[in-house]
Amino acid sequence: MAEVQGYCDSKFNPVREILQQRIASGDELGASLCINVDGKTVLDLWGGHMNVAQTKEWTEDTITGVWSSTKLVTCLAVQILASRGLIDVDEKVAAYWPEFAANGKENAKVSHILSHTSGVPAWDGLISAEEIQDTKKATDRLADQAPWWVPGEQHGYHLISWGHMMGELVRRISGKSLTQFISDEIATPLGADFRLGLPEQDYSRTADIVPPPPVSLDGIDAASLVVRAMVGSAMDPTLPNQTGFRKSEIGAANGFSNARALARIGSVISLDGVVDGKKYLSSGTLDKMMEEQAKGLDPALLLYTRYGLGVGLPSLQTLPCIPEDDHICFWGGWGGSLLIMDRGRRMTIAYVMNKMSARPLGNESVDLYAKEIYKILGAL
After folding, report:
1. pLDDT category of residue 316 using cuts at 50, 70 and 90
2. Cβ neighbourhood burial of 26 (10 Å; 0-12, 13-18, 19+)
3. Structure confidence by residue, pLDDT tens digits, 285-298
4. pTM score, two decimals?
5. By 3-state DSSP, what share of the chain in percent is helix, strand and coil, each rounded to 5?
6. Which residue from 5, 92, 154, 342 has the highest number of Cβ atoms inside 10 Å of its Cβ?
7. Where does the pLDDT of residue 107 fall: very low under 50, low under 70, confident under 90, or very high at 90 and above?
8. Sequence-ordered strand ranges (E) for the chain
9. Phi and psi at residue 65, to the nearest 5°
10. Beta 30-37 vs 255-257: how paired, if at all?
């Protein structure tokens, strides 16, 4: 059995013990967990294995696909532009991307995309992974299609399309690809080991994603939004292991990282926009980002959700392990990875793993870790 490695402040030893137990039991294959409080790392742990055969141990610099935890990084790219006054989230998308106004989307706002209320939660009809990986063609197709509902009138999680639309706005406004913007403005300045897409030189240190048990959609109406969204998003859990996915730019899903790097990036929010003396976001931008835009049963996830502008807001109906607190926001990835930003406690919690759960958001492991972390903080 691979022992858990890394640093842990003694106060958080119970969290380390849970991680070790989960790895020993096989509930975790490989994972990393990190907590940053007030700019200081109080826990940075990793353990388990990178592959099912358990021939490669998860090490300090292991990374893996984090699915929709990528969205938090893409959200920060847009919020950085907003903080600089280069984009107004209340402005119509077409003000920056005129082609998007086609077929009834002329009144769609940037805030509608950020909050999953734009009416473009997926591509119309069946789409392949290869088509989605052709970022320009796939993005043009989104611009051309009609919305599934009047923008702003309901919400439905934008599984993959969200990243293409956000990425196009970043490109139009900054003149850089989303990949380059994230590298230049977020990952490199923060020294965070995060990549949108995966260079070949990093393949050897990348843990294999292990798919979850299949979820059956039998009995669900083929015309329902959840089925249309899945069909129109090419949701194949093995994609992070595939070269085509790794070489593409998918701002909603093809980030590769570990918990240490995600905690570092998330601390931009937790520390009120300033990390190591460098200001990334204004407090006003963060306040607006965390204002509730939509809530209720999400027909694309079949889960109760609350959305701010690019972030999830806590609800016990969504993830009971996160306190219902106006100073907290979060998001996670398919299978379990999770990033919690707590501005009130100036704390960031990040979790990354390679063995996926069937749940659309979170997994049993992160439920246990987050619950124990908040229990410890309460005791302190």
Report:
1. very high
2. exposed
3. 999 999 999 999 99
4. 0.97
5. 40, 20, 45
6. 342
7. very high
8. 5-8, 30-37, 40-48, 64-65, 195-196, 255-257, 274-275, 278-279, 294-298, 303-307, 328-332, 338-342, 347-353
9. -70, 135
10. unpaired
Residue of 353, 304, 321, 275 lying closest to 48 (CA atoms): 353
Residue 296 near residue 152 (C-beta atoms within 8 A) = no
Distance CA 205, CA 59 (A): 8
Classify burial at 84, counting beta carbons within 10 Å of its beta carbon; exposed 0-12, middle 13-18, buried 19 or more: middle
Structural domains of the chain, ranges and CATH numbers in brackets: 5-379 (3.40.710.10)
Q: What digits encode the pLDDT tens for the residues 330-353?
A: 999 999 999 999 999 999 999 999
Is residue 1 scored above 70 in pLDDT?
no
The band of 215, judged by pLDDT with boundaries at 50, 70 and 90, is: confident
Instruction: Fill in the DSSP letter of residue 205.
Output: G
Residue whose entry in the numeric block shows the structure tokens 């509930």:
27
CB neighbour burial string for 192-221, b if at least 16 within 10 angstroms, e if fewer: bbbbbbbeeeeeebbbbbbebeeeeeeeee
DSSP calls for 350-362: EEEESB--SSSS-
Give the pLDDT band of residue 380 (cuts 50, 70, 90).
Answer: low
> Hey, what amino acid is at 26?
G
Pairing between strand 30-37 and 347-353? antiparallel
Tokens of 122: 């997926």
